[in-house]
Specification:
The structure is a single chain. By secondary structure, the protein is of the alpha/beta class. The chain has 2 domains: 146 residues, no CATH class; 202 residues, Alpha/Beta hydrolase fold, catalytic domain (Rossmann fold, 3-Layer(aba) Sandwich). It is 51% helix and 12% strand. It is built from 16 helices and 8 strands. An 8-stranded mixed beta sheet has the order 1-2-4-3-5-6-7-8, with helices on both faces. Strand 3, helix 8 and strand 4 form a beta-alpha-beta unit. The two termini are 36 Å apart.
């Protein structure tokens, strides 16, 4: 039987807050009808909007937390969110039209993002918990963006240099949005990944649905194909993401344990698209495999894709029971790796630093060490780094990780491949290299 995503605790409370929130929306829409004609109406609209967003922040952080988590896990997220909303509501009336428009637009965009995530989550596994107040963010976001446009139109200035001035303002807006608005947007996305329904899959051989328990007491959903050759491989970070690779390994007799990362799909916990705390998930998978009678002499390896590849490196650096690691598509997961770019990354450094802060605040988790600090700790166990010529998210840093690692190590660039698309680009060579790597490391053949 497949593990189903559990409903959020406190969903009844969130429904009550959504009813109250609709009353605020009606009041806000009434005020908005005159926003373009009165300098005070936009203040009413903005403060009503911050109130609704604040209600959603309370529900999201304290009343309807993810399965396996509680309000005490999100104190930092909730406190910082409410403090920033209060500061924005207080500062708004004191700003000029341009400042008001910028603040309205920023909160409007983030509100629309929250609404989109709630809708995606509801479509995936049904409306749960904070999804109900998340739906209210759609009219809020639209209203705030409309207020921003109205303020800019009303405050436009005539003059001979007006077009040049507007171009300059537009360029400055894009740069500031990249530095200041994109980081919190990524932080919200990274810690509010919509769950997806998990259906039965074809793994080429019979498999079991199992539950793993982490050291911090979370239950993780997993599938396991029993081993026929005495060795097993952990596949991370989703059960359904890389089924062809799982079938490939199972075809060669390997046991394959496919794990949903914490906060993903059928697993408990809060999600983080950058991983960060995911090493505990892999440690739990390794511990489970060590107790299996079909896995002999601790012959356990791991294969991770994208953020899963990064977490495989982190787990192997501290867990000697993980005897061989394939990392495909590892890249940048915090400002620590971004600094490796040197002068090439100076323009985007402010964005990367604020993004790391945003993810840390939203997740309540400190950024992990740089991958260049972790890869040397894997030796003398073998490491195989695979990356694509058309990758993303910092895959081009894999040669730096390779140079930092100690022997035994391997590096393979697949020029024509897309992100984590090695098997699709070169199926025969991929199978030969990956299976051969595990054969040598885990079976001595």
């Amino acid at each position: 039987m497949l593990a189903a995503a559990e409903p959020h605790a406190g969903s009844g409370a969130s429904r009550m807050t959504s009813v109250a929130g609709w009353g605020t929306v009606l009041a806000m829409s009434s005020a908005f009808r005159g926003a373009t004609g009165s300098s005070g109406r936009d203040v009413v609209v903005f403060r009503c909007a911050t109130g609704i967003v604040g209600v959603h922040a309370i529900v999201d952080s304290f009343l309807a937390t993810e399965p396996g988590t509680g309000a005490d896990d999100h104190v930092l997220r909730g406190s910082v969110s409410l403090a920033l909303l209060a500061a924005a509501a207080l500062a708004y009336p004191r700003l000029r039209a341009g400042g008001r428009a910028a603040l309205s637009f920023a909160l409007g965009v983030l509100s629309l993002e929250g609404a989109a995530l709630a809708i995606a989550d509801a479509r995936g596994v049904g409306a749960r918990g904070e999804d109900w107040t998340g739906f209210l963010l759609l009219p809020v976001g639209l209203a705030l963006c409309a207020v921003a446009v109205a303020l800019l139109w009303r405050s436009r200035k005539p003059g001979r240099w007006r077009y040049l001035r507007r171009v300059g303002i537009g360029v400055a807006t894009v740069v500031l949005a990249y530095w200041l608005l994109l980081p919190p947007a990524i932080g919200i996305l990274a810690t509010h990944r919509p769950r997806a329904a998990v259906e039965r899959a074809d793994l080429g051989r019979p498999y079991e649905t199992v539950t793993l328990r982490t050291s911090d007491d979370l239950e993780l959903a997993a599938w396991y194909v029993p081993s026929r050759n005495g060795a097993a491989v952990v596949s991370y970070p989703t059960r359904q993401g890389k089924l062809p690779q799982a079938r490939m390994l199972a075809r060669h007799g390997y046991g394959v344990l496919l794990v949903d990362a914490r906060g993903y799909d059928g697993s408990e916990g809060a999600p983080n698209l950058f991983g960060w705390a995911g090493a505990k998930d892999i440690d739990a998978a390794v511990a489970w495999l060590r107790a299996r009678p079909d896995v002999r002499d601790g012959r356990i390896g791991g294969i991770g894709f994208s953020v899963g590849g990064e977490m495989m490196i982190q787990a192997a650096a501290s867990n000697p029971a993980l005897r061989a690691v394939v990392s495909e598509g590892a890249g940048v997961r915090s400002v620590r790796e971004h600094l490796l770019r040197g002068p090439r990354g100076w323009l985007s450094l402010p964005e990367s630093a604020l993004e790391t802060v945003a993810v840390a605040v939203m997740s309540g988790t400190a950024p992990p060490p740089s991958l260049t600090d972790l890869v040397p700790r894997i030796a003398p166990r073998p490491l195989f780094l695979v990356y694509a010529g058309h990758g993303q998210g910092g895959e081009d840093l894999n040669p730096r990780y390779f140079r930092a690692a100690s022997e035994p190590k391997m590096l393979w660039k697949i020029p024509e491949a897309q992100h984590v698309g090695g098997l699709e680009a070169r199926p025969r060579e991929y199978e030969t290299r990956i299976v051969g790597f595990f054969d040598r490391a885990l079976r001595g053949t």
